[in-house]
């Protein structure tokens, strides 16, 4: 039940925190039984939980692992298919399944290859459903970012930490503006420059100044900004509405219901258009340069957040396609990071 062990080891404990207490209790007990290698009892607890809750793809995956270990392959495949229907799609999931020893007994079953084929078809169908162009609604002006603060760079470096719980209060539009500017704001406008600059040089360096990242804001509690999903137009320092509706619960589910989402006021979401880099640097652009660019930008957010007495934490564990759908990303984008933000407690 090591779901993408390097990335998703948290899921049994965290993925269900948004469900009712009875559901949580049953899943927690199932985890304990799994750890004790009492797989039959663990599977029965999962079944009981699923009768009263709304399982995520991660919950179904875990139940499939338990069922396989309990020598109930029919139940295991049933749960894997339910996970597929719930969003367990993508190369990372297929790799996780292949490397998960809990599912070893299923791999000689003819249904294993049928499941993999179904996953690949679902991936093709889902990817084709994403739009070629981003939805663009109302435009919201952001306050001009401040260039002088009261916290030194040295202090921010010393005390910056990943924060996973926040004061359940609002952020101001000025604070959001400052965070977004620190992530990818224009610092050196270039008029009539090459198209790839898209307005000029930014707060974060980028290989070849190709700027492959796209930045979004999911607003939950931000003054003077309706709840919804917004694309940050770094060239104009404005927010463009992608969806003026509450998608916070869907964001949390895509993010495996990790505890950060319970109190965060908003979240910054990163994606990348890898072709901007690979067109010049080939595979090295994908494997190295985009990730380096993301790290530069995310660290800016960490430091700026500390200076504003705001907490954040970079999240890399999420359902890629689920997050892409929630945000309304274009077909060419790939999601990279979620950074929930909220006032320090």
Pick out its properties:
2 domains, alpha+beta, NADH Oxidase, 345 residues, two-stranded antiparallel sheet, 14 helices, disordered N terminus, Serine Threonine Protein Phosphatase 5, Tetratricopeptide repeat
- Can you write the helix and strand succession as a string? HHHHHHHHEHHEEEEEHEHHEHE
CATH architecture of the largest domain: 3-Layer(aba) Sandwich
Summed up, the helix count is 14
- Overall number of structural domains: 2
- Would you tell me which CATH topology of the largest domain applies? NADH Oxidase
Strand content of the residues, in percent?
5-15%
| β-strand number | 9
What class do helices, strands and sheet pairing give?
A: alpha+beta
CATH superfamily of the largest domain: NADH Oxidase
């Amino acid at each position: 039940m090591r779901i993408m062990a390097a990335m998703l080891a948290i899921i049994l404990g965290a993925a269900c925190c948004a469900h009712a207490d009875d559901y949580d209790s049953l899943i927690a007990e199932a985890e304990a039984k799994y750890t004790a290698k009492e797989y039959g009892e663990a599977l029965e607890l999962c079944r009981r939980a699923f009768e009263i809750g709304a399982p995520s793809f991660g919950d179904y995956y875990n139940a499939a692992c338990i069922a396989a270990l309990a020598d109930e392959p029919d139940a295991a495949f049933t749960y894997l298919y339910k996970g597929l229907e719930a969003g367990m799609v993508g190369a990372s999931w297929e790799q996780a399944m292949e490397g998960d020893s809990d599912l070893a007994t299923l791999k000689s079953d003819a249904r294993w290859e049928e499941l993999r084929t179904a996953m690949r078809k679902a991936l093709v169908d889902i990817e084709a459903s994403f739009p070629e162009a981003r939805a663009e609604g109302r435009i919201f002006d952001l306050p001009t970012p401040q260039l002088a603060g009261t916290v030194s760079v040295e202090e921010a470096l010393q005390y910056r930490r990943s924060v996973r719980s926040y004061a359940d209060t609002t952020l101001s539009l000025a604070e959001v503006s400052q965070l977004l500017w620190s992530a990818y704001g224009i610092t050196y406008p270039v008029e009539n420059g090459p198209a790839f600059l898209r307005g000029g040089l930014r707060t974060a360096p980028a290989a070849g100044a190709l700027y492959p990242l796209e930045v979004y804001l999911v607003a939950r509690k931000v003054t003077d900004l309706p709840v919804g999903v917004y694309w940050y137009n770094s060239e104009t320092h404005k927010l463009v509405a992608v969806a003026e509706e509450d998608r916070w619960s869907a964001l949390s589910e895509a993010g495996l219901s990790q505890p950060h989402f319970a109190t965060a006021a908003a979240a910054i979401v990163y994606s990348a258009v890898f072709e901007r880099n690979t067109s010049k640097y080939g595979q090295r652009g994908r494997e190295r340069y985009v990730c380096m660019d993301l790290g530069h930008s995310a660290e800016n957010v960490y430091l700026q957040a500390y200076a504003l007495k705001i907490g954040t934490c970079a999240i890399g564990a999420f359902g890629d396609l689920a997050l892409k759908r929630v945000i309304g990303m274009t077909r060419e984008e790939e999601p990279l990071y979620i950074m929930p933000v909220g006032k320090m407690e």
